[in-house]
């Protein structure tokens, strides 16, 4: 059974991921309104081109406004929060001013603090995992070079009818959506994968290029293993139990970085529309002034400090990427080997 026809999805923060999800839901017959930056709201209202991994092009439209204050609340509203983590606090306050505490909130975001922030204001919060590599370098075009998996569950744990119904509507929209009681563990695993958003931003690499470069693979492995070591010491689960279905198994993904591989020339020469750029790379490229590194690499650095575990990889990534945003530098400040050498030059001092 899908969610009742009275349900309306309010996609708050409709950038690349939010616009794609909102547009696909609208196309599948759900009632949707998006809240986006002015240029992006205008593009959604006119129609955006969605370029899919399989080569299929779709044109998506959705009703869109530019702030929560422009919404006319309805009894069946269900908020899908798709802002970056650094914007969550302000987004939650905007939504609370409009709705009060009663509207359900789904945090379809990177990082692991958004649900906690939402739960301070709203009584019904859902954790959302999104594996949807969306690239939007101009408002009217979104590329989906890979992914399309979503998991939804109650926060902090559990599933209910609403989460199952939401997954049914997302599946009807063309996404692979699963209701799970273990979404927060999945999100911790994705956080470890997303630690390298900073690595690709600093080096300027797209993901396929990074996975085909031996120096980059080695660097990405070190970043992930440092993150896993800290979270293991903190006794934080980064995966659901082995018998539970999960779209991410971060330990297996990390182990694959150790395995022999054959560099692929086609990965290095991919056309622009097929490249997977991290959201952090896109933010820097587009000249935005804030980034999510504090909610990704910063999570590892802070926990490492509390546990007296050195985190030279993640602390260096955090420092460098923040400087790049502060100074308005373009992606590609260091080559992978140069970045690795910079980190290794700090190993002794960080361990003291």
Question: TL;DR?
Answer:
This protein is of the alpha/beta class. It has 16 helices and ten strands.
CATH superfamily of the largest domain: NAD(P)-binding Rossmann-like Domain
Task: Count the domains.
Answer: 2
Which blocks of ≥5 consecutive residues have pLDDT under 50? none
Helicity level = 40-55%
The helix/strand class is: alpha/beta
CATH architecture of the largest domain: 3-Layer(aba) Sandwich
Strand-helix topology:
Blueprint: E1 8-12, H1 16-27, E2 31-35, H2 38-46, E3 48-52, E4 57-60, E5 63-65, E6 77-81, H3 88-99, E7 105-108, H4 114-119, E8 125-138, E9 141-154, H5 161-172, E10 176-179, H6 183-194, H7 196-203, H8 207-211, H9 214-233, H10 250-256, H11 265-268, H12 279-285, H13 293-306, H14 312-327, H15 336-344, H16 347-351
Parallel strand pairs: 1-2, 1-6, 2-5, 3-9, 6-7, 7-8, 9-10
Antiparallel strand pairs: 3-4, 8-9
Helix pairs in contact: 7-12, 7-14, 9-13, 13-14, 14-15
What does this structure look like?
By secondary structure, the chain is of the alpha/beta class. The protein folds into two domains: 174 residues, Rossmann fold (3-Layer(aba) Sandwich), CATH 3.40.50.720; 164 residues, N-(1-d-carboxylethyl)-l-norvaline Dehydrogenase, domain 2 (Orthogonal Bundle). It is built from 16 helices and ten strands. The protein is globular, with a radius of gyration of 20 Å. It starts with 7 loop residues before the first strand and ends with a helix. The model has no long low-confidence stretch (mean pLDDT 94).
């Amino acid at each position: 059974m899908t969610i009742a026809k009275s349900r309306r999805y309010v996609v708050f923060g409709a950038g690349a991921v939010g616009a794609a999800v909102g547009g696909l839901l609208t196309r599948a017959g759900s009632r949707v309104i998006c809240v986006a930056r002015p240029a992006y709201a205008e593009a959604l209202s006119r129609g955006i081109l969605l370029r899919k991994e399989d080569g299929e092009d779709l044109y998506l439209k959705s009703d869109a406004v530019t702030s929560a204050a422009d919404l006319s609340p309805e009894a069946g509203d269900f908020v899908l929060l798709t802002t970056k983590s650094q914007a969550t606090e302000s987004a939650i306050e905007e939504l609370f001013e409009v709705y009060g505490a009663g509207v359900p909130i789904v945090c379809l975001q990177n990082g692991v603090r958004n649900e906690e922030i939402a739960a301070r204001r709203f009584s019904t919060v859902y954790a959302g995992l999104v594996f949807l590599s969306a690239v939007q370098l101009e408002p009217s075009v979104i590329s989906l070079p890979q992914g399309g998996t979503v998991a939804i569950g109650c926060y902090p744990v559990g599933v209910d009818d609403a989460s199952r119904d939401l997954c049914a509507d997302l599946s009807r929209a063309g996404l692979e959506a699963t209701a799970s009681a273990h979404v927060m563990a999945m999100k911790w695993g994705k956080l470890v994968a997303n630690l390298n958003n900073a690595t690709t931003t600093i080096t300027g690499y797209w993901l396929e290029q990074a996975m085909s470069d031996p120096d980059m693979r080695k660097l990405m492995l070190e970043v992930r293993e440092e993150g896993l070591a800290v979270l293991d010491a903190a006794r934080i689960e980064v995966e659901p139990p082995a018998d539970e279905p999960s779209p991410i198994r971060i330990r297996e993904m990390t182990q694959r970085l150790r395995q022999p591989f054959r560099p692929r020339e086609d990965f290095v020469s991919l056309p622009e529309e097929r490249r997977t750029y991290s959201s952090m790379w896109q933010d820097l490229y587009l000249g935005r002034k804030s980034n999510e590194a504090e909610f990704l690499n910063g999570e590892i650095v802070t926990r490492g400090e509390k546990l007296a575990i050195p985190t030279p990889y993640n602390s260096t990534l955090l420092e460098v990427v923040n400087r790049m945003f502060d100074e308005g530098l373009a992606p590609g400040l260091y080559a992978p080997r140069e970045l690795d050498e910079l980190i290794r030059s700090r190993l002794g001092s960080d361990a003291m």
